[in-house]
Each structure stands twice: as structure tokens, then as C-alpha cells.
């Protein structure tokens, strides 16, 4: 209640509290549950720059239970709050914003990119603002901006906006290059390969992946990531042998990889290589081999990758349809659709639309008809 009054939030903070925890703060809170700022307090008194009164800022506020809420505040109100009761900041702001990025990435896979994109963009703006007031650790700030830009690019990629995704990944590469961080540059190049592959640009996917492998340090997980995306590029070009060699190289590089000192590629592991191999085998028309790879990989996926599980289930269903196992394809499609409804992933939706087209010839089968009807019931669904 004090925060809501000091920040002139007009009851918005109290409403957020009620949404998250139920009841009002004086009913639910204790001294241990009080909220604290995730980022630094910025005001005219402690900033090197002059901020115009009335400037709107967004504060990330974390409760002791781990939730992060965002509160709009004006500079003059923020200054008044800081004068009265400014919380101590124990860590450098980079650590706070890096933790926020990790939280956004985790929530992305649980709740979907459409839900997380506005928060990620707001947090990116906060990082840019904070960098202006903290001139130390310049390389770390640039690396953090590169990581945020890549995250925002990924979120645009999952909602199906490839043009925006390309823009943000280009920005990420620019900041990584300015920082002189070769590992970050190599990873972003690998991400460029992934996006090119998703857009069907096989040549570009192979070229950028091979550049990333050359750029990555020896015995690097980032090189394994790039080799994986090179494999899909070769599959798009119809070269099965080169695709399989690239995936084998990815497994070899990952098994020999040393621990990374950077945040990139936390999602990447052996099952991830397998699902990418399976996708590429489907592209090549090797449906039975693709199904084998999915059966091997999906039970071993990292916990919390709900949205990606939906994408992979839809892709496995397409492989089953190619193998003319229509009933299994429809069953997997329904499971994928259930996840897609929650996460609203455009990548999963595209796979499901393609699956619908593949299953139309079996629409007399009750299981297939159930899936087709479920897809038709979706907003913008297939008829």
C-alpha cells in the first residue's frame, strides 16, 4: 500500500497483489513478504543525467515469493519515493537484469511468446536506460543487450513474425560484435542459421552455421548448436548424407564440450539434437527414421519446455502422416493442439495446419475427423 501511494499507481499495485495472491496486502503480507525493487532506483538526485519531471518509467518489483510485477511511475514520484525509503541495492544492476532475462526465457516456454513479448520489450527498455547511468562494465552491458535482443528476436520468431525476428537478431549480432565477444557472435550466427532454416533458406542456413562453427572456440557447445542447424540446412537442400554428418558432428562436439562461461544455449542438449534430426528426416521424406528419432528424444526433453513439446508433437504427427499412420498422427495432433491453445505458438500452429492438409485424405477415420473438427473450431482454423 505504501508503494502504491508513493508511486502514485492509483491502486494498480494493489490490484496486482490481489491478482497474484488474493486479498489485500495487509491481510496477506508479513515482514518477510514485502516487495523489493529488482532494478536500481533512478532519480534526479543520484543520476548523472537530468531527467525531466513527469518522465514515465517502468519498475520491475519482485516479491519474496519470486513473482515479478511491473509498476508505472513518474520520475518526480520516483524521486520522492527514493528520498523517503530507498531500498539498498546489494548487486550490480547487470545481475538483476540478467536474472530477469532468465525468468522471461523460462516463462516463454510455459506461457508462450505472445504473452511474454510485451514484458520482454519493456525489460529491454529498462536495460537500455540503466546502461546510461552505469558506465562501468561496458562489455557486460553490451553482451546483456545482445542477449535481450536475441530473446526478443526469438519471441517474434515463435509468433511467426520473421521480419521482426531478423531485425532483432541483427541487432543482437551488432551488440555482440561491439562487445568483441566471439562466443556471443558465434551463437547469434547460429541463431541466424536456425531462423533461415525455419524460413526455408537452406543455402543461408548452411553458410551461417558453418561461419558460426569457425567462429566458436574449440570444444564449444555453441559449435555443436551451429552444426545442428547446418544439418537442417542440408536437409532443406535435399542432401541426406551431409545432413546426417552434420548431426553426428553436433553429437560429437556436444560430448566433448567444455562448460561455457556465457548464458547462450541453455536449451541445447542431446534430445534437442535428436528432435532437429527428426525434423530434417521428415523434410527428406524419411518418415520412419524420423519417428524413431522422436521416440528417442521426446521422453528425455528438459522439464518446463511445454511450448516446444507442442511443436515437436506436431512435427512427429506429420512424420506419422507421411508414414500413413493416420490414427497415431491424429492422436499426436490433438495433444499438440491442446498445448498450442495455451501457448499460441505460430510455429506449432503452422505444423498443425500442414498436418491437417496431410490427413484430409483419411477424414473418414473417426480419430482423424476428431482432429480436423478440433482444428476447424480454432479461431482462423482450417475448414
TrEMBL record:
This is Tetratricopeptide (TPR) repeat protein. It comes from Longispora fulva. The lineage of its organism: Bacteria, Bacillati, Actinomycetota, Actinomycetes, Micromonosporales.
Amino acid at each position: 500500500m505504501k508503494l502504491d501511494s508513493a508511486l502514485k499507481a492509483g491502486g494498480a499495485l494493489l490490484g496486482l497483489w490481489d491478482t497474484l495472491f488474493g486479498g489485500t496486502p495487509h491481510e496477506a503480507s508479513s515482514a518477510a513478504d514485502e516487495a523489493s525493487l529488482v532494478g536500481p532506483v533512478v532519480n534526479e538526485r543520484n543520476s548523472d543525467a537530468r531527467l525531466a519531471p513527469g518522465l514515465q518509467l517502468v519498475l520491475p518489483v519482485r516479491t519474496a515469493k519470486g513473482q515479478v510485477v511491473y509498476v508505472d511511475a513518474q520520475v518526480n514520484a520516483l524521486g520522492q519515493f527514493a528520498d523517503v525509503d530507498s531500498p539498498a541495492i546489494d548487486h550490480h544492476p547487470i545481475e538483476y537484469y540478467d536474472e530477469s532475462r532468465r525468468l522471461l526465457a523460462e516463462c516463454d516456454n510455459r506461457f508462450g511468446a505472445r504473452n511474454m513479448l510485451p514484458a520482454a520489450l519493456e525489460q529491454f527498455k529498462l536495460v537500455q536506460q540503466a546502461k546510461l547511468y552505469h558506465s562501468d562494465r561496458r562489455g557486460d552491458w553490451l553482451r546483456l543487450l545482445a542477449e535481450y535482443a536475441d530473446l526478443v528476436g526469438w519471441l517474434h520468431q515463435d509468433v511467426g513474425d520473421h521480419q521482426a525476428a531478423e531485425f532483432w537478431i541483427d541487432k543482437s549480432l551488432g551488440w555482440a560484435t561491439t562487445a568483441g565477444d566471439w562466443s556471443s557472435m558465434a551463437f547469434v550466427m547460429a541463431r541466424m542459421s536456425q531462423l533461415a532454416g525455419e524460413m526455408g533458406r537452406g543455402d543461408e542456413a548452411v553458410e551461417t552455421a558453418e561461419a558460426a562453427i569457425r567462429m566458436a572456440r574449440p570444444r564449444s557447445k555453441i559449435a555443436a548448436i551451429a552444426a545442428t542447424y547446418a544439418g537442417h540446412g542440408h536437409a532443406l537442400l535435399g542432401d541426406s548424407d551431409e545432413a546426417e554428418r552434420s548431426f553426428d558432428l553436433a553429437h560429437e562436439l556436444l560430448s566433448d564440450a567444455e562448460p561455457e562461461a556465457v548464458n547462450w544455449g541453455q536449451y541445447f542438449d542431446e534430445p534437442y539434437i535428436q528432435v532437429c534430426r527428426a525434423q530434417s528426416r521428415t523434410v527428406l521424406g524419411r518418415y520412419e527414421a524420423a519417428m524413431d528419432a522422436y521416440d528417442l528424444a521426446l521422453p528425455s526433453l528438459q522439464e518446463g519446455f511445454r511450448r516446444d513439446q507442442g511443436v515437436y508433437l506436431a512435427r512427429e504427427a506429420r512424420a506419422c502422416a507421411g508414414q500413413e499412420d493416420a490414427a497415431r498422427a491424429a492422436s499426436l495432433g490433438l495433444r499438440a493442439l491442446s498445448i498450442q491453445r495455451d501457448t499460441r505458438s505460430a510455429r506449432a500452429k503452422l505444423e498443425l495446419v500442414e498436418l491437417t492438409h496431410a490427413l484430409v485424405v483419411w477424414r473418414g477415420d473417426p480419430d482423424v475427423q476428431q482432429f480436423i473438427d478440433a482444428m476447424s473450431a480454432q479461431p482462423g482454423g482450417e475448414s
